[in-house]
Design brief:
It is built from 15 helices and 13 strands. It has helices spanning about 1-10, 15-45, 160-205, 210-245, 275-290, 305-335, 340-355, 360-380, 395-420, 425-430, 435-465, 470-475, 500-510, 515-550, 550-555, and strands spanning about 50-55, 65-85, 85-100, 115, 120-125, 130-135, 140-150, 155, 245-250, 255-260, 265-270, 295, 300. Strands 6, 7, 8, 9, 10 and 11 form a six-stranded antiparallel β-sheet that branches. The longest helix is centred in the N-terminal third of the chain and has 47 residues, at about 160-205.
Length: about 550
Amino acid sequence: MMIDEMKNWWKSGTPWIWLNAGAVSISLLLVIGILGMIMVKGMGHFWVSDVYEMHYNDTKNPPRTIIGERVETADITVKLYEEVESMKAPADTVVIKRVLIKSGNRDQASADFQWIFAHHIEQQTTPEQLIKLERLEWGNFYGYLKNVQQQGEIIAAGDEAWHELNQRFERVQDLHEELKTLEKDEISSINYGLERLRLKKRKLELDKKDSPENLQLLTDQENAFKADYEIVIKRLNLLREEIKRDSASFIMANGKDVTISLHMLVSILKPNQMGVMTKLAHYVLNFYHFIFEDPREANTEGGVFPAIFGTVMMVILMSVLVTPFGVIAAVYLREYARQGPLIRLIRIAVNNLAGVPSIVYGVFGLGFFVYFLGGNIDQLFYPEALPAPTYGTPGLVWAALTLALLTVPVVIVSTEEGLARIPKNLREGSLALGATKAETLWRVILPMSSPAIMTGLILAVARAAGEVAPLMLVGVVKLAPELPLDDNFPFLHMERKFMHLGFHIYDVGFQSPNVEAARPLVYATAFLLVLVIVLLNLSAIMLRNRLREKYKALDA
Protein backbone atom coordinates (compact mmCIF):
# COMPACT_ATOMS: atom_id res chain seq x y z
CA MET A 1 0.00 0.00 0.00
CA MET A 2 2.83 2.37 0.91
CA ILE A 3 4.63 1.57 -2.34
CA ASP A 4 1.49 2.32 -4.39
CA GLU A 5 1.06 5.67 -2.64
CA MET A 6 4.70 6.55 -3.38
CA LYS A 7 4.24 5.63 -7.04
CA ASN A 8 1.10 7.74 -7.29
CA TRP A 9 2.93 10.60 -5.58
CA TRP A 10 5.78 10.44 -8.09
CA LYS A 11 3.37 10.18 -11.01
CA SER A 12 1.42 13.23 -9.81
CA GLY A 13 4.46 15.40 -10.44
CA THR A 14 4.48 16.86 -6.93
CA PRO A 15 8.19 15.99 -6.28
CA TRP A 16 9.21 17.87 -9.42
CA ILE A 17 7.19 20.89 -8.36
CA TRP A 18 8.96 20.95 -5.00
CA LEU A 19 12.33 20.34 -6.68
CA ASN A 20 11.73 23.22 -9.05
CA ALA A 21 10.62 25.48 -6.18
CA GLY A 22 13.72 24.54 -4.19
CA ALA A 23 16.01 25.23 -7.16
CA VAL A 24 14.40 28.63 -7.74
CA SER A 25 14.68 29.47 -4.03
CA ILE A 26 18.36 28.50 -3.94
CA SER A 27 19.03 30.55 -7.07
CA LEU A 28 17.31 33.58 -5.57
CA LEU A 29 19.28 33.23 -2.34
CA LEU A 30 22.53 32.99 -4.29
CA VAL A 31 21.69 36.07 -6.35
CA ILE A 32 20.68 38.03 -3.24
CA GLY A 33 23.84 36.87 -1.48
CA ILE A 34 26.10 37.94 -4.35
CA LEU A 35 24.40 41.32 -4.65
CA GLY A 36 24.61 41.78 -0.89
CA MET A 37 28.34 41.00 -0.86
CA ILE A 38 28.94 43.42 -3.75
CA MET A 39 26.90 46.12 -2.04
CA VAL A 40 28.66 45.74 1.34
CA LYS A 41 32.18 45.68 -0.13
CA GLY A 42 31.47 48.46 -2.61
CA MET A 43 29.36 50.87 -0.58
CA GLY A 44 31.60 50.50 2.46
CA HIS A 45 34.35 52.23 0.47
CA PHE A 46 32.66 55.61 0.95
CA TRP A 47 32.57 55.47 4.75
CA VAL A 48 35.07 57.67 6.58
CA SER A 49 37.17 55.29 8.69
CA ASP A 50 39.23 56.19 11.74
CA VAL A 51 42.96 56.75 11.25
CA TYR A 52 45.28 54.84 13.57
CA GLU A 53 48.77 55.60 14.80
CA MET A 54 50.56 52.33 15.55
CA HIS A 55 53.96 51.71 17.12
CA TYR A 56 55.28 48.67 15.29
CA ASN A 57 58.25 46.48 16.25
CA ASP A 58 58.89 43.26 14.33
CA THR A 59 62.27 42.58 16.04
CA LYS A 60 64.04 42.30 12.67
CA ASN A 61 63.86 46.01 11.86
CA PRO A 62 64.11 49.15 14.00
CA PRO A 63 60.84 50.17 15.69
CA ARG A 64 58.72 52.48 13.55
CA THR A 65 55.44 54.37 13.56
CA ILE A 66 52.70 53.57 11.06
CA ILE A 67 49.77 55.89 10.37
CA GLY A 68 46.83 54.74 8.31
CA GLU A 69 43.41 53.10 8.05
CA ARG A 70 42.74 49.47 8.93
CA VAL A 71 41.28 47.90 5.78
CA GLU A 72 40.95 44.20 6.60
CA THR A 73 42.41 41.37 8.66
CA ALA A 74 43.37 37.86 7.61
CA ASP A 75 44.62 34.76 9.41
CA ILE A 76 47.56 32.78 8.06
CA THR A 77 48.91 29.43 9.23
CA VAL A 78 52.65 29.27 9.91
CA LYS A 79 54.70 26.14 10.61
CA LEU A 80 57.24 26.28 13.43
CA TYR A 81 60.49 24.33 13.09
CA GLU A 82 62.90 22.87 15.62
CA GLU A 83 66.42 21.45 15.36
CA VAL A 84 66.49 17.63 15.24
CA GLU A 85 69.98 16.19 14.87
CA SER A 86 71.24 19.26 13.00
CA MET A 87 68.20 19.22 10.73
CA LYS A 88 65.06 21.37 10.83
CA ALA A 89 61.85 19.43 11.31
CA PRO A 90 58.27 20.79 11.62
CA ALA A 91 57.25 21.00 15.26
CA ASP A 92 53.87 22.77 15.34
CA THR A 93 51.63 25.23 13.50
CA VAL A 94 50.25 28.54 14.73
CA VAL A 95 47.68 30.96 13.34
CA ILE A 96 48.94 34.52 12.95
CA LYS A 97 46.70 37.50 12.27
CA ARG A 98 47.73 39.98 9.59
CA VAL A 99 46.32 43.48 9.15
CA LEU A 100 46.12 45.38 5.87
CA ILE A 101 46.89 49.05 6.46
CA LYS A 102 46.18 51.85 4.00
CA SER A 103 49.11 54.06 4.93
CA GLY A 104 48.88 56.34 1.87
CA ASN A 105 51.74 58.77 1.18
CA ARG A 106 52.53 56.95 -2.06
CA ASP A 107 54.73 59.79 -3.28
CA GLN A 108 56.99 59.23 -0.26
CA ALA A 109 56.82 55.42 -0.05
CA SER A 110 56.78 52.60 -2.56
CA ALA A 111 53.13 51.66 -1.97
CA ASP A 112 50.15 53.04 -0.09
CA PHE A 113 49.04 49.64 1.27
CA GLN A 114 51.04 47.31 3.51
CA TRP A 115 50.44 44.09 5.45
CA ILE A 116 51.65 43.98 9.04
CA PHE A 117 51.44 41.35 11.78
CA ALA A 118 49.01 42.18 14.59
CA HIS A 119 51.21 40.72 17.32
CA HIS A 120 54.00 43.16 16.43
CA ILE A 121 51.80 46.20 17.15
CA GLU A 122 52.97 47.44 20.55
CA GLN A 123 50.57 50.37 20.84
CA GLN A 124 47.61 51.61 18.82
CA THR A 125 45.86 54.98 19.24
CA THR A 126 43.52 57.28 17.30
CA PRO A 127 44.79 60.84 17.92
CA GLU A 128 42.22 63.51 17.16
CA GLN A 129 44.80 65.70 15.38
CA LEU A 130 45.55 63.14 12.68
CA ILE A 131 44.62 64.49 9.25
CA LYS A 132 43.51 62.60 6.14
CA LEU A 133 44.06 64.34 2.80
CA GLU A 134 42.54 63.09 -0.45
CA ARG A 135 44.70 64.31 -3.31
CA LEU A 136 44.30 64.64 -7.06
CA GLU A 137 47.48 62.58 -7.47
CA TRP A 138 49.32 59.99 -5.38
CA GLY A 139 46.27 58.91 -3.40
CA ASN A 140 45.68 59.75 0.27
CA PHE A 141 48.08 61.43 2.67
CA TYR A 142 48.06 60.84 6.45
CA GLY A 143 49.90 62.95 8.99
CA TYR A 144 49.81 65.94 11.32
CA LEU A 145 49.32 69.56 10.27
CA LYS A 146 52.34 71.72 11.00
CA ASN A 147 51.64 75.12 9.40
CA VAL A 148 49.87 76.92 6.54
CA GLN A 149 51.88 78.91 4.03
CA GLN A 150 51.23 81.60 1.45
CA GLN A 151 53.82 81.79 -1.32
CA GLY A 152 56.28 79.99 0.96
CA GLU A 153 55.77 82.22 4.00
CA ILE A 154 54.22 80.75 7.15
CA ILE A 155 50.98 82.54 8.04
CA ALA A 156 49.48 80.15 10.61
CA ALA A 157 50.77 77.39 12.88
CA GLY A 158 49.66 75.47 15.93
CA ASP A 159 45.98 75.62 16.88
CA GLU A 160 45.18 78.38 14.35
CA ALA A 161 46.51 76.37 11.39
CA TRP A 162 43.48 74.06 11.05
CA HIS A 163 40.96 76.93 10.78
CA GLU A 164 43.19 78.82 8.33
CA LEU A 165 43.68 75.65 6.28
CA ASN A 166 39.94 75.13 5.85
CA GLN A 167 39.31 78.75 4.86
CA ARG A 168 42.01 78.74 2.21
CA PHE A 169 40.94 75.32 0.96
CA GLU A 170 37.40 76.64 0.34
CA ARG A 171 38.90 79.48 -1.70
CA VAL A 172 40.94 76.99 -3.73
CA GLN A 173 37.81 74.90 -4.39
CA ASP A 174 36.01 77.96 -5.78
CA LEU A 175 38.96 78.65 -8.07
CA HIS A 176 38.90 75.01 -9.20
CA GLU A 177 35.27 75.38 -10.24
CA GLU A 178 36.09 78.52 -12.22
CA LEU A 179 39.03 76.78 -13.88
CA LYS A 180 36.86 73.81 -14.76
CA THR A 181 34.26 76.08 -16.36
CA LEU A 182 36.91 77.84 -18.44
CA GLU A 183 38.60 74.64 -19.58
CA LYS A 184 35.58 72.46 -20.25
CA ASP A 185 33.14 75.06 -21.54
CA GLU A 186 34.77 78.14 -23.02
CA ILE A 187 38.08 76.75 -24.26
CA SER A 188 36.44 73.54 -25.48
CA SER A 189 33.86 75.55 -27.39
CA ILE A 190 36.53 77.76 -28.98
CA ASN A 191 38.66 74.77 -30.00
CA TYR A 192 35.60 73.08 -31.48
CA GLY A 193 34.79 76.21 -33.49
CA LEU A 194 38.38 76.51 -34.77
CA GLU A 195 38.37 72.86 -35.84
CA ARG A 196 35.13 73.34 -37.77
CA LEU A 197 36.59 76.38 -39.53
CA ARG A 198 39.67 74.35 -40.47
CA LEU A 199 37.48 71.66 -41.97
CA LYS A 200 35.43 74.25 -43.86
CA LYS A 201 38.61 75.68 -45.38
CA ARG A 202 39.74 72.22 -46.40
CA LYS A 203 36.33 71.54 -47.96
CA LEU A 204 36.53 74.75 -49.99
CA GLU A 205 39.94 73.65 -51.27
CA LEU A 206 38.63 70.23 -52.30
CA ASP A 207 35.59 71.78 -54.02
CA LYS A 208 37.78 74.39 -55.79
CA LYS A 209 35.81 77.18 -54.14
CA ASP A 210 38.66 78.64 -52.10
CA SER A 211 38.22 82.13 -53.48
CA PRO A 212 39.70 85.07 -51.52
CA GLU A 213 36.18 86.21 -50.56
CA ASN A 214 35.19 82.84 -49.13
CA LEU A 215 38.51 82.41 -47.36
CA GLN A 216 38.38 85.93 -45.95
CA LEU A 217 35.01 85.23 -44.32
CA LEU A 218 36.40 82.14 -42.61
CA THR A 219 39.57 84.01 -41.67
CA ASP A 220 37.53 86.73 -39.96
CA GLN A 221 35.65 84.10 -37.96
CA GLU A 222 38.94 82.42 -37.08
CA ASN A 223 40.45 85.70 -35.88
CA ALA A 224 37.40 86.30 -33.69
CA PHE A 225 37.83 82.85 -32.13
CA LYS A 226 41.54 83.49 -31.58
CA ALA A 227 40.83 86.83 -29.92
CA ASP A 228 38.39 85.15 -27.55
CA TYR A 229 40.95 82.42 -26.96
CA GLU A 230 43.64 84.92 -25.96
CA ILE A 231 41.27 86.52 -23.44
CA VAL A 232 40.31 83.18 -21.93
CA ILE A 233 43.95 81.99 -21.81
CA LYS A 234 45.01 85.12 -19.94
CA ARG A 235 42.27 84.58 -17.40
CA LEU A 236 43.19 80.90 -17.18
CA ASN A 237 46.87 81.64 -16.54
CA LEU A 238 45.98 84.14 -13.83
CA LEU A 239 43.76 81.57 -12.13
CA ARG A 240 46.47 78.92 -12.34
CA GLU A 241 48.95 81.23 -10.66
CA GLU A 242 46.42 82.29 -8.04
CA ILE A 243 45.35 78.75 -7.22
CA LYS A 244 48.96 77.73 -6.46
CA ARG A 245 49.41 80.50 -3.89
CA ASP A 246 48.57 78.54 -0.74
CA SER A 247 50.20 75.41 0.64
CA ALA A 248 50.53 73.56 3.93
CA SER A 249 53.26 71.64 5.70
CA PHE A 250 52.53 68.24 7.29
CA ILE A 251 54.48 65.82 9.47
CA MET A 252 54.56 62.19 8.33
CA ALA A 253 54.75 59.10 10.56
CA ASN A 254 58.55 59.01 10.24
CA GLY A 255 58.83 62.66 11.35
CA LYS A 256 59.60 64.02 7.90
CA ASP A 257 58.05 67.36 6.84
CA VAL A 258 56.14 67.44 3.55
CA THR A 259 54.76 70.57 1.89
CA ILE A 260 51.64 70.10 -0.24
CA SER A 261 49.96 72.75 -2.40
CA LEU A 262 46.27 73.13 -1.59
CA HIS A 263 45.27 73.02 -5.26
CA MET A 264 46.30 69.35 -5.30
CA LEU A 265 43.79 68.43 -2.57
CA VAL A 266 40.26 67.07 -2.99
CA SER A 267 39.23 66.93 0.68
CA ILE A 268 40.65 67.63 4.15
CA LEU A 269 39.37 65.65 7.13
CA LYS A 270 40.11 64.87 10.75
CA PRO A 271 38.33 61.47 10.85
CA ASN A 272 38.99 60.79 14.55
CA GLN A 273 37.14 63.97 15.54
CA MET A 274 34.06 63.18 13.43
CA GLY A 275 30.88 61.78 14.97
CA VAL A 276 28.53 59.26 13.39
CA MET A 277 26.23 61.88 11.85
CA THR A 278 29.17 63.83 10.43
CA LYS A 279 30.58 60.66 8.91
CA LEU A 280 27.16 59.82 7.50
CA ALA A 281 26.99 63.24 5.84
CA HIS A 282 30.45 62.72 4.33
CA TYR A 283 29.39 59.23 3.24
CA VAL A 284 26.53 60.71 1.20
CA LEU A 285 28.88 63.38 -0.18
CA ASN A 286 31.50 60.79 -1.18
CA PHE A 287 28.86 58.70 -2.95
CA TYR A 288 27.60 61.82 -4.73
CA HIS A 289 31.11 62.60 -5.95
CA PHE A 290 31.50 59.00 -7.09
CA ILE A 291 28.38 59.33 -9.23
CA PHE A 292 28.95 62.78 -10.71
CA GLU A 293 32.72 63.27 -10.96
CA ASP A 294 35.24 62.20 -13.59
CA PRO A 295 37.74 59.40 -12.86
CA ARG A 296 41.38 60.10 -12.12
CA GLU A 297 44.56 58.22 -11.15
CA ALA A 298 44.17 55.55 -13.86
CA ASN A 299 40.47 55.20 -12.92
CA THR A 300 41.33 54.10 -9.36
CA GLU A 301 40.14 57.40 -7.86
CA GLY A 302 37.36 59.87 -8.51
CA GLY A 303 33.96 59.14 -10.00
CA VAL A 304 32.35 57.25 -12.84
CA PHE A 305 29.95 59.80 -14.34
CA PRO A 306 31.28 59.49 -17.94
CA ALA A 307 30.85 55.71 -17.72
CA ILE A 308 27.28 56.04 -16.41
CA PHE A 309 26.44 58.59 -19.11
CA GLY A 310 27.97 56.45 -21.86
CA THR A 311 26.17 53.30 -20.69
CA VAL A 312 22.75 54.96 -20.53
CA MET A 313 23.25 56.83 -23.82
CA MET A 314 24.32 53.67 -25.63
CA VAL A 315 21.38 51.66 -24.27
CA ILE A 316 18.87 54.37 -25.24
CA LEU A 317 20.32 54.65 -28.75
CA MET A 318 20.39 50.86 -29.07
CA SER A 319 16.72 50.68 -28.01
CA VAL A 320 15.75 53.31 -30.59
CA LEU A 321 17.52 51.30 -33.30
CA VAL A 322 16.53 47.75 -32.34
CA THR A 323 12.82 48.31 -31.74
CA PRO A 324 11.72 49.31 -35.27
CA PHE A 325 13.91 46.69 -36.94
CA GLY A 326 12.72 43.93 -34.63
CA VAL A 327 9.05 44.91 -34.86
CA ILE A 328 9.10 45.27 -38.67
CA ALA A 329 10.78 41.88 -39.06
CA ALA A 330 8.28 40.21 -36.70
CA VAL A 331 5.29 41.84 -38.43
CA TYR A 332 6.50 40.65 -41.81
CA LEU A 333 7.13 37.10 -40.61
CA ARG A 334 3.77 36.84 -38.81
CA GLU A 335 1.39 39.02 -40.82
CA TYR A 336 2.63 39.20 -44.40
CA ALA A 337 5.00 36.35 -45.23
CA ARG A 338 3.53 33.16 -46.65
CA GLN A 339 4.24 30.44 -44.10
CA GLY A 340 6.43 27.73 -45.54
CA PRO A 341 9.88 26.12 -45.41
CA LEU A 342 11.67 29.42 -46.13
CA ILE A 343 9.97 31.24 -43.26
CA ARG A 344 10.64 28.33 -40.93
CA LEU A 345 14.30 28.46 -41.97
CA ILE A 346 14.38 32.21 -41.25
CA ARG A 347 12.90 31.63 -37.79
CA ILE A 348 15.52 28.97 -37.08
CA ALA A 349 18.25 31.40 -38.19
CA VAL A 350 16.82 34.15 -35.94
CA ASN A 351 16.77 31.80 -32.95
CA ASN A 352 20.33 30.69 -33.67
CA LEU A 353 21.50 34.30 -33.87
CA ALA A 354 20.58 34.69 -30.20
CA GLY A 355 23.19 32.05 -29.33
CA VAL A 356 26.11 33.53 -31.29
CA PRO A 357 28.95 34.69 -28.97
CA SER A 358 28.90 38.45 -28.48
CA ILE A 359 32.54 38.87 -29.51
CA VAL A 360 31.58 37.63 -32.98
CA TYR A 361 29.15 40.54 -33.25
CA GLY A 362 31.97 42.83 -32.18
CA VAL A 363 34.23 41.56 -34.97
CA PHE A 364 31.39 41.94 -37.47
CA GLY A 365 30.65 45.47 -36.23
CA LEU A 366 34.31 46.44 -36.53
CA GLY A 367 34.63 45.05 -40.05
CA PHE A 368 31.28 46.06 -41.52
CA PHE A 369 30.04 49.08 -39.56
CA VAL A 370 33.36 50.77 -38.74
CA TYR A 371 35.71 49.95 -41.61
CA PHE A 372 33.27 49.46 -44.50
CA LEU A 373 30.24 51.62 -43.70
CA GLY A 374 32.06 54.27 -41.67
CA GLY A 375 34.97 54.41 -44.11
CA ASN A 376 32.64 55.00 -47.05
CA ILE A 377 30.71 57.66 -45.10
CA ASP A 378 34.00 59.48 -44.53
CA GLN A 379 34.86 59.29 -48.23
CA LEU A 380 31.43 60.61 -49.28
CA PHE A 381 30.56 63.19 -46.62
CA TYR A 382 33.74 64.04 -44.67
CA PRO A 383 36.61 64.09 -47.22
CA GLU A 384 37.96 67.31 -45.71
CA ALA A 385 38.79 65.50 -42.44
CA LEU A 386 40.75 62.68 -44.09
CA PRO A 387 43.08 60.96 -43.39
CA ALA A 388 41.76 61.45 -39.85
CA PRO A 389 38.56 59.35 -39.68
CA THR A 390 35.21 60.75 -38.56
CA TYR A 391 32.88 57.76 -38.73
CA GLY A 392 35.50 55.30 -39.94
CA THR A 393 36.63 54.69 -36.37
CA PRO A 394 34.90 53.02 -33.40
CA GLY A 395 32.23 55.23 -31.86
CA LEU A 396 28.89 55.43 -30.08
CA VAL A 397 26.71 54.85 -33.15
CA TRP A 398 28.59 51.71 -34.19
CA ALA A 399 28.45 50.31 -30.66
CA ALA A 400 24.69 50.91 -30.56
CA LEU A 401 24.20 49.29 -33.98
CA THR A 402 26.31 46.29 -33.00
CA LEU A 403 24.32 45.72 -29.82
CA ALA A 404 21.07 46.30 -31.74
CA LEU A 405 22.11 43.51 -34.10
CA LEU A 406 22.99 41.34 -31.09
CA THR A 407 19.61 41.84 -29.40
CA VAL A 408 17.26 42.02 -32.40
CA PRO A 409 16.46 38.25 -32.26
CA VAL A 410 15.03 38.73 -28.77
CA VAL A 411 12.74 41.53 -29.95
CA ILE A 412 11.64 39.55 -33.02
CA VAL A 413 10.71 36.43 -31.05
CA SER A 414 8.92 38.40 -28.32
CA THR A 415 6.97 40.51 -30.83
CA GLU A 416 5.96 37.44 -32.83
CA GLU A 417 4.59 35.81 -29.70
CA GLY A 418 2.61 38.96 -28.94
CA LEU A 419 1.19 39.09 -32.46
CA ALA A 420 0.19 35.43 -32.26
CA ARG A 421 -1.85 36.17 -29.10
CA ILE A 422 -4.10 38.72 -30.84
CA PRO A 423 -7.51 37.04 -31.42
CA LYS A 424 -8.39 36.42 -35.05
CA ASN A 425 -11.86 37.92 -34.65
CA LEU A 426 -10.34 41.33 -33.90
CA ARG A 427 -8.55 41.31 -37.23
CA GLU A 428 -11.64 40.16 -39.04
CA GLY A 429 -13.86 42.68 -37.25
CA SER A 430 -11.55 45.55 -38.19
CA LEU A 431 -11.44 44.45 -41.82
CA ALA A 432 -15.24 44.00 -41.85
CA LEU A 433 -15.70 47.59 -40.71
CA GLY A 434 -13.83 48.76 -43.79
CA ALA A 435 -10.30 49.23 -42.42
CA THR A 436 -7.41 48.22 -44.62
CA LYS A 437 -4.87 45.66 -43.50
CA ALA A 438 -2.33 48.40 -42.83
CA GLU A 439 -4.83 50.37 -40.74
CA THR A 440 -5.77 47.22 -38.82
CA LEU A 441 -2.10 46.56 -38.17
CA TRP A 442 -1.36 50.13 -37.07
CA ARG A 443 -4.47 50.85 -34.99
CA VAL A 444 -5.39 47.45 -33.54
CA ILE A 445 -2.72 44.77 -33.74
CA LEU A 446 0.44 46.74 -32.87
CA PRO A 447 -1.13 48.64 -29.91
CA MET A 448 -2.43 45.39 -28.43
CA SER A 449 0.91 43.64 -28.91
CA SER A 450 2.88 46.59 -27.45
CA PRO A 451 3.28 44.85 -24.02
CA ALA A 452 5.01 41.94 -25.79
CA ILE A 453 7.19 44.41 -27.71
CA MET A 454 8.16 46.06 -24.44
CA THR A 455 8.97 42.65 -22.95
CA GLY A 456 11.39 42.03 -25.81
CA LEU A 457 12.89 45.48 -25.30
CA ILE A 458 13.34 44.80 -21.58
CA LEU A 459 15.24 41.60 -22.33
CA ALA A 460 17.31 43.41 -24.95
CA VAL A 461 18.21 46.22 -22.53
CA ALA A 462 19.13 43.73 -19.81
CA ARG A 463 21.56 41.95 -22.11
CA ALA A 464 22.98 44.98 -23.93
CA ALA A 465 23.71 47.01 -20.78
CA GLY A 466 26.04 44.34 -19.43
CA GLU A 467 27.87 43.46 -22.65
CA VAL A 468 31.55 44.37 -22.77
CA ALA A 469 33.38 42.16 -25.28
CA PRO A 470 31.90 43.62 -28.50
CA LEU A 471 32.14 47.18 -27.18
CA MET A 472 35.90 46.86 -26.79
CA LEU A 473 36.09 46.64 -30.59
CA VAL A 474 33.46 49.19 -31.66
CA GLY A 475 33.67 52.24 -29.44
CA VAL A 476 34.36 51.93 -25.72
CA VAL A 477 37.60 53.38 -24.30
CA LYS A 478 39.38 53.55 -20.96
CA LEU A 479 39.00 57.33 -20.68
CA ALA A 480 36.95 59.53 -23.01
CA PRO A 481 38.05 63.19 -23.12
CA GLU A 482 34.56 64.39 -24.12
CA LEU A 483 31.00 63.20 -23.62
CA PRO A 484 28.95 62.26 -26.70
CA LEU A 485 26.42 64.94 -25.75
CA ASP A 486 27.37 68.60 -25.28
CA ASP A 487 26.25 72.12 -26.22
CA ASN A 488 28.22 72.23 -29.50
CA PHE A 489 26.28 71.67 -32.73
CA PRO A 490 25.00 69.05 -33.61
CA PHE A 491 24.90 68.41 -29.83
CA LEU A 492 24.77 64.60 -30.10
CA HIS A 493 28.14 63.45 -31.48
CA MET A 494 27.52 59.81 -32.31
CA GLU A 495 30.97 59.39 -33.84
CA ARG A 496 32.73 59.93 -30.51
CA LYS A 497 34.13 57.16 -28.34
CA PHE A 498 32.58 56.69 -24.92
CA MET A 499 33.08 55.06 -21.53
CA HIS A 500 31.02 52.13 -20.24
CA LEU A 501 30.48 50.79 -16.73
CA GLY A 502 31.15 47.19 -17.75
CA PHE A 503 34.46 48.04 -19.39
CA HIS A 504 35.30 50.33 -16.46
CA ILE A 505 34.95 47.33 -14.13
CA TYR A 506 37.24 45.27 -16.35
CA ASP A 507 39.81 48.04 -16.62
CA VAL A 508 39.91 48.88 -12.91
CA GLY A 509 39.85 45.23 -11.83
CA PHE A 510 42.40 43.77 -14.23
CA GLN A 511 44.46 46.63 -15.68
CA SER A 512 45.02 48.78 -12.60
CA PRO A 513 48.57 49.02 -11.23
CA ASN A 514 47.21 49.54 -7.70
CA VAL A 515 45.18 46.41 -6.98
CA GLU A 516 44.28 47.15 -3.36
CA ALA A 517 43.04 50.65 -4.15
CA ALA A 518 41.05 49.41 -7.14
CA ARG A 519 39.29 46.52 -5.39
CA PRO A 520 36.55 48.50 -3.57
CA LEU A 521 35.91 50.55 -6.71
CA VAL A 522 35.33 47.34 -8.66
CA TYR A 523 32.63 46.30 -6.21
CA ALA A 524 31.09 49.80 -6.12
CA THR A 525 31.02 50.10 -9.92
CA ALA A 526 29.58 46.59 -10.28
CA PHE A 527 26.80 47.42 -7.84
CA LEU A 528 26.17 50.68 -9.69
CA LEU A 529 25.94 48.82 -13.01
CA VAL A 530 23.32 46.51 -11.51
CA LEU A 531 21.37 49.55 -10.29
CA VAL A 532 21.51 51.19 -13.73
CA ILE A 533 20.24 48.02 -15.41
CA VAL A 534 17.48 47.66 -12.81
CA LEU A 535 16.38 51.29 -13.29
CA LEU A 536 16.35 50.94 -17.08
CA ASN A 537 14.34 47.73 -16.82
CA LEU A 538 11.93 49.19 -14.27
CA SER A 539 11.24 52.12 -16.59
CA ALA A 540 10.41 49.74 -19.43
CA ILE A 541 8.35 47.50 -17.12
CA MET A 542 6.27 50.44 -15.89
CA LEU A 543 5.59 51.49 -19.49
CA ARG A 544 4.67 47.91 -20.40
CA ASN A 545 2.26 47.62 -17.48
CA ARG A 546 0.54 50.87 -18.47
CA LEU A 547 0.13 49.60 -22.02
CA ARG A 548 -1.13 46.26 -20.74
CA GLU A 549 -3.78 47.96 -18.58
CA LYS A 550 -4.77 50.22 -21.47
CA TYR A 551 -5.46 47.36 -23.87
CA LYS A 552 -6.70 44.81 -21.35
CA ALA A 553 -10.35 45.44 -22.23
CA LEU A 554 -9.74 44.89 -25.94
CA ASP A 555 -7.77 41.72 -25.21
CA ALA A 556 -10.65 40.38 -23.14
